[in-house]
Known about the structure:
By secondary structure, the protein is an alpha/beta fold. It is built from 15 helices and five strands. It has a five-stranded mixed β-sheet. The longest helix has 27 residues, at 319-345.
Amino acid sequence: MPKINPRIKSIDDLLGLDTPAEETVEPTPSLSLPTKNTIITLSTQAIRGFRGHPFRLYEGDRLNDLVESISAHGVLTPAIIRKIERDEDGFEYEMLAGHNRQNAAAIANRELPCIVKENLSDEDAWIYVIETNVLQRSFSEMLPSEKAAVLALRYSKMICQGRRNDIIEELKKLENPDEIRENGTCGNECHKSKSRDVVGAEYDLKGRAVANYLRINELITPLKRRIDDAEFPIVVAVQLSYLAEQEQQMVDDVLSGSKYKVNEGKVVLLREYTGKLTPERTGQILSGEFNRKPKKPSAAAFKVKPAIYKKYFTASISQKEFDSIVDEALALYFAQKGQESEQEAG
């Protein structure tokens, strides 16, 4: 982390925004993140959403409240965006932190103040997207797919722990610039301790739970939305994650066109047929039709009338003796019937 200038008194000083030359603070060589930021005001239509954004946007009353606030007061907290190469749609900026503000500002027909990050790598961009959401709300309050995205980033070997700490420290300063603390972690050091248990300890999860969330992160977006909506439990989602992307899409297509439910039995059967699944077979499994086995005809049971029983047997006879006598009697009966049939035929 760079040394903190004790004269920093505003967010402009903190973010290194354009200031008069005599007040400019030179960055230290050890800083691994871009040091020059600017604040600009943009139309919400000029910024593309972060590609692969894993968090669900506000809906309903929560969105309406934000729109009402922005309509009355404007956007009070700048969004964080990054400068990108002009893409195929003409966008030169990508949203990192502020998707809900952008959405609400668009509805309220207000412009969006933005902190612009330049020369930001894709890896660092992901950290901004994930960590801003973690800082703004509790991990425990996140949806399953959102937890999966957070844990996948933390578990990823491409993320340098020191760099992540630098970005988190910067984001915390944005939330409360009066509380500026030194951070002993050097931005150039990469700590490779990425075991599931280490990652889980940070979020009060067991290693197995972390592994399950990492699997959920492999689901296609429509299936992630379904687990967020509690259409099936985590154990089913984990099993679905082992299907190929095309097969997952088949599952979602069938569920979208029906009222079928996915349970553990069905998802195990789907996995057994992975590589051979077709839309028709997927529909048969999810409907339960393919899992049904024809019922085997069962032999009819007969009872001996009390009068007949008393005629030939005593009350002291055992079940074994009873079965033996009946077996011998029936054998003699059918043998005699067979002889009579032969005589009639001759």
